[in-house]
Design a protein that fits this description.
Chain B: One of its GO terms (biological process) is phosphorelay signal transduction system. Chain B: InterPro entries: Bact_response_regulator, Sig_transdc_resp-reg_receiver. Chain B: Keywords: Phosphoprotein. Chain B: This is Response regulator. The complex is a heterodimer. Chain A is mostly helical. Chain A has four domains: 429 residues, Sodium/glucose cotransporter, CATH 1.20.1730; 83 residues, no CATH class; 109 residues, Orthogonal Bundle (Helix Hairpins), CATH 1.10.287; 149 residues, Heat Shock Protein 90. Chain A is built from 33 helices and nine strands. Chain A has a five-stranded mixed beta sheet with strand order 4-6-7-9-8. Chain A has a two-stranded antiparallel sheet with strand order 1-2. In chain A, strands 3-5 form a two-stranded antiparallel sheet. In chain A, strand 6 and strand 7 form a beta hairpin. In chain A, helix 2 crosses helix 9, helix 3 packs across helix 15 and helix 12 crosses helix 13. Chain A is elongated, with a radius of gyration of 46 Å. By secondary structure, chain B is α/β, with parallel strands linked by helices. Chain B has a single domain, classed as Rossmann fold, CATH 3.40.50. In chain B, strand 1, helix 1 and strand 2 form a beta-alpha-beta unit. Classes of the chains: A mainly alpha, B alpha/beta. Chains A and B meet through helix 29 and helix 30 of A and helix 1 of B.
């Protein structure tokens, strides 16, 4: 394929990506941009050209050693839900925009530390970027026809132009705002799309190689198993190599947190914490898919091409050698995608660090203070733009001068080892509040020195002089100082060896000096905020301990320089409202200091923010003890407030309950009053009768006709009976209602109980000509208080008698078993009950207007008492009008 | 001859009142509740109506209201005779326009003298 066609394809591809990024930036609020899938795919920026080409190279030459690089992240993924969530939360709270900011803020806004972290990242990542460029260049050459062509100057090297295009892309989408903690949706979405493409294209070639060129995985396996070095390619190869595995896994575990591009996509670009939930399983799945075909492509390459030097590009060469140019182009574009995403995100992250932690705090602050806000914003953006271009161009220069002998794999690992120097201060700093800035700086420098001696120096010497003496004999010929076998540890590969020693030294320095040298109060303040982030999120701006004198006006002046008049005004208004402060507050407090530093951090980095704010305030030294005391107090206040709120809620609930209980009592009281009223009224009626009759009999004894006299005496008797019945029923009802009655429960035959009751009515029924039918002959034994049930039946039957017409009346008593209950019913063919009265018939002193006998018969308590008796048996009583005529009363008793 | 309508749902009480007023030369009409009383009042214009309050169907208060609305009965006195003897009940009865409020249990002699005095 011609150079120009290929270059045209690349240009088209880049334009498409540019377009996608542009659309995403325009629709930055859309759910297509803000979801967990895009988030996870952006995390896959982890898979660079190293994954795409390098893994195959390793698999072809040294077997399954490519795997630990992916095992680390797989192990790390489940921990994200705790660890990464904490990091994201802290970063959001402090508007952190890079790992350098994150670490330097943890150690008290230390300017030097921020710069040091930036340098570490540059050392690690710039060569890494150049390797990506190398991969593009080499694959470009493989794919183009004229292999004889060798570029002689920068101007006709296609890689240079590609590098420039990438720099433009990163500049355009990476420096839209001055606040680097803002999200870069365009870049994230384009990275996500690239992650899909690189995976899909790699799977394409995997399937093509395995199933088209070969006869499936078994075919490759069986052919490969005949080769001489098969065993070494499929095993870890012994105990000592096992250490290599272990350390490489640890290394990649750290890298997934510490690599600047990973920090950028996983922390800075994180939109919602809950996206982590899906990422913890989707990301490992992505890595798994990516690695499925690595081994088969490698073996297939070994079997058909067999050239170990070209092993890294088997994925490209296999389809190309078999005449499938189209697939080769896809593979090339997949690899190119991996390169673009890595280069763009890495340079974006690095440029933020370079500007906010290196350039601005060491030289531009004075100029900013003297300048206007618009110009400052331009300055900041330009610093970042220049950084992006410089980083990519330096990487390009590195590639041109150095990378001839380097494999993707070894430079990748070297980058990991360098970045891993941040691990102690990063991970331990999150959980150990004693870790101090001095110890961190010493640790990182010491670790870096070890890396330099064991990895970079031997590599450089060999690259420049071609001599391996240094490696073989060590410094000054001292064997213990051989760079790849320090103190006799000679079984590790150079990167893991360097990793082991550097991290050990780094860790020892960090821990020892942290214990020996105490950090200053500000460090300790931030340490508390990081370690106990959950508590301090509640404290918000109050988490910063600060004492001194500061005027709001001075701070405002500084803010205006970077945010402009309008934004500053708005931000301060918001702040005052949030903390209920008057808008014309004169003196600034710790919260405002913290708030202002945060506002500036996104634009110029935390160290510069601190320096700027400190320059306009008079800060008093606070002792460490005081810091801890104040923090403890604030925490306690928060806890107390929470407790207070809970207690007050409880109290409100209690008051409500009390109110309810009170209302219930009042209601009960009212009911009691009504009951007493009614009782009094009911008692007065017979007494009135007796009183009046007695008076008449006394005064009129002589004139009164004897039949009237007899009637009056009869009336008196009736009233007396009524009175005693009333009193008896009232007492009975009261006893049943208050639960003071003990039921005499034993086993009885309900048939006999009903018969007994009916027998007592025989005489009266006969007199009235009403038939009482009881035809159920089956014995049914149940447990109840017989006297009480007879009382209920008596009430119901006497009611029925009252409601039925003489001569025509018919009352039917029956019972049946119904789902755990014994159901007894008394049915009559009388007048029935007016529907509107049905709900009240069991109320006390309800008396129907429909009864056939005249009044003095009932007490008005019969049904109320019956209801109480049935309820005391845990049963239920009811009434309903029959369809034709009359009414049916029924009750259920629970039955086992 | 004076005419009295006795409205009460307690037959034993009614019986004593009927006996007494007949002995004092009243023409006595008996109703068991308000609606029966109103039926009687369509034909008869009595001198006095004696009303119980708590009765089925139409109670004493309603009956009083209906009597007061009937122009034909503007000279008829209305007396409550009831067991409700709370001050608030009495006030309510008199407010509604009853001419007298007598309570149960009662003395027959006193009832007669009160009624006679009312219609004298």
């Amino acid at each position: 394929m011609s150079n120009y066609v290929l270059f045209l394809i690349i240009i088209c591809y880049l334009i498409a990506l540019f377009f996608i990024a542009f659309i995403a930036e325009k629709n930055s609020k859309s759910k297509w941009v803000n979801n967990s899938v895009v988030y996870t795919l952006s995390l896959a920026v982890y898979c660079t050209a190293w994954t795409y080409y390098g893994s195959v190279g390793i698999a072809a030459n040294s077997g399954i050693d490519f795997l630990p690089i992916y095992l680390g992240p797989v192990i790390a993924a489940p921990l994200w839900i705790i660890l990464l969530k904490k990091i994201i939360r802290i970063s959001r709270q402090h508007k952190i925009s890079s790992i350098a900011d994150f670490i330097s803020l943890r150690y008290g806004n230390n300017r030097f530390l921020g710069a040091l972290v930036t340098v570490v990242c540059l050392l690690g990542i710039v060569p890494y970027i150049s390797l990506q460029l190398k991969a593009v260049s080499e694959t470009f050459q493989i794919l183009s026809d004229d292999t004889s062509y060798v570029s002689t100057s920068v101007y006709d090297d296609s890689t240079f132009y590609i590098a420039v295009l990438l720099a433009i892309f990163a500049t355009f989408f990476g420096t839209q705002t001055t606040d680097a903690s803002e999200k870069h949706k365009g870049i994230v979405v384009s990275v996500a799309i690239e992650s899909i493409l690189k995976l899909v294209f790699f799977l394409f070639v995997g399937i093509y190689v395995t199933y088209v060129l070969f006869d499936g995985t078994e075919d490759i396996y069986s052919k490969m198993s005949q080769s001489a070095n098969f065993k070494s390619l499929t095993t870890i190869s012994g105990f000592e190599k096992g250490f290599n595995w272990l350390y490489t896994i640890m290394l990649s575990f750290m890298a997934i947190f510490l690599l600047p591009r990973q920090f950028q996509v996983s922390v800075v670009e994180n939109v919602r914490e809950k996206h982590l939930k899906n990422a913890i399983w989707m990301f490992p799945l992505y890595l798994l898919l990516f690695n499925i075909f690595v081994i088969f492509i490698a073996w297939a390459g070994n079997l058909t091409i067999g050239n170990a030097d070209q092993a890294e590009y088997y994925a490209l060469l296999l389809p190309l050698k078999n005449g499938n140019t189209f697939l080769s182009v896809l593979v090339f574009l997949g690899g190119f995608s991996a390169v673009i995403s890595m280069v763009v995100v890495a340079t974006l992250a690095l440029s933020t660090m370079v500007s906010n932690n290196l350039v601005i705090p060491y030289g531009f602050l004075d100029r900013f203070v003297k300048s206007h806000p618009e110009r400052n914003a331009k300055y900041i953006k330009n610093i970042r733009r220049i950084s992006i271009f410089s980083i990519i161009l330096i990487a390009y220069a590195f590639y041109v001068n150095f990378s001839y002998e380097l494999s993707l794999y070894s430079i990748g690992l070297m980058a990991f080892v360098i970045i891993a120097q941040l691990a102690p201060s990063f991970f331990i700093g999150l959980f150990w509040n004693r870790g101090s800035s001095k110890a961190t700086i010493i640790g990182i420098i010491a670790g870096l020195s070890v890396v330099f001696y064991t990895l970079i120096l031997p590599f450089s010497i060999q690259a420049f002089t071609g001599s391996a003496d240094f490696m073989q004999y060590g410094l000054n010929g001292i064997e213990a100082l051989r760079p790849h076998a320090l103190f006799g540890i000679d079984f590790l590969s150079p990167p893991t060896h360097a990793f082991f020693w550097s991290l050990l030294v780094n860790l020892i320095c960090y821990v020892t000096f942290s214990v020996i040298v105490k950090g200053n109060y500000r460090e300790r303040n931030y340490a508390e905020m990081y370690v106990d982030s959950k508590n301090y999120t509640d404290l918000q701006d109050g988490a910063l301990v600060w004492k001194g004198e500061a005027y709001v006006a001075d701070i405002k002046k500084v803010l205006v320089k970077f945010l402009g008049e309008a934004r500053t005004e708005r931000a301060l208004n918001l702040f005052f409202r949030k903390y209920n402060l008057p808008l014309d507050t004169q003196m600034a407090d710790a919260r405002l200091i913290n708030f202002s530093e945060k506002l500036l951090t996104g634009s110029i980095g935390s160290a510069s923010a601190k320096i700027l704010i400190s320059s306009v305030v008079k800060e008093d030294e606070v002792s460490l003890v005081e810091v801890l005391k104040i923090l403890e107090e604030s925490k306690e206040t928060i806890a107390r407030n929470k407790l207070l709120k809970e207690k007050s809620e409880e109290l409100t609930k209690l008051t409500d309950q009390l109110q309810e209980a009170n209302e219930e009592l009042i209601e009960k009281d009212k009911q009691k009053d009504e009951f007493l009223d009614t009782v009094a009224h009911e008692l007065k009626t017979p007494i009135t009768g007796i009183r009046a009759t007695t008076e008449l009999l006394m005064d009129d004894e002589d004139d009164m006709p004897s039949e009237i006299k007899t009637q009056f005496l009869k009336n008196m008797l009736q009233d007396s009976d009524r009175l005693s019945r009333l009193i008896h029923n009232i007492l009975d009802f009261e006893k049943l209602s208050t639960g003071r009655t003990q039921l005499n429960i034993s086993k009885y035959n309900i048939r006999k109980t009903i018969k007994k009751t009916i027998d007592s009515f025989n005489h009266m029924a006969q007199k009235r000509g009403v038939k009482i039918v009881h035809s159920n002959k089956s014995d049914f034994y149940a447990e109840y208080d017989e006297d009480r049930i007879v009382q209920v039946l008596t009430n119901l039957i006497s009611n029925a008698l009252k409601f039925t017409e003489p001569k025509k009346g018919k009352i039917i008593a029956d019972y049946k078993y119904d789902e755990g209950f014994l159901e007894i019913s008394i049915k009559d063919n009388g007048k029935g009950i007016p529907e509107e009265d049905i709900p009240f018939v069991f109320d006390k002193f309800y008396q129907s207007k429909n009864q056939n006998t005249i009044k003095p018969e009932g007490s008005g308590l019969g049904l109320a008492i019956s209801k109480k008796i049935v309820e005391n048996h845990n049963g239920k009583i009811w009434v309903k009008n029959n369809q034709k005529s009359g009414v049916t009363f029924g009750f259920k008793l629970p039955f086992e | 001859m004076k005419k009295i309508v006795i409205v009460d749902d307690e037959p034993n009480i009614v019986m004593t009142l009927e006996y007494t007023f007949k002995k004092h030369n009243f023409e006595v009409y008996i109703a068991r509740d308000g609606s029966e009383a109103l039926e009687i009042l369509e034909d008869v214009v009595p001198d006095v109506v004696m009303l119980d309050v708590m009765m089925p169907k139409v109670d004493g208060y309603q009956t009083l209201k209906l009597i007061k609305e009937n122009n034909k009965l503007k000279n008829t006195k209305v007396v409550f005779l009831t067991a409700k003897n709370k001050a608030s009940d009495i006030e309510k009865g008199l407010k509604l326009g009853a001419d007298k409020y007598l309570t149960k249990p009662f003395s027959v002699k006193k009832i007669v003298s009160e009624i006679k005095e009312l219609i004298a």
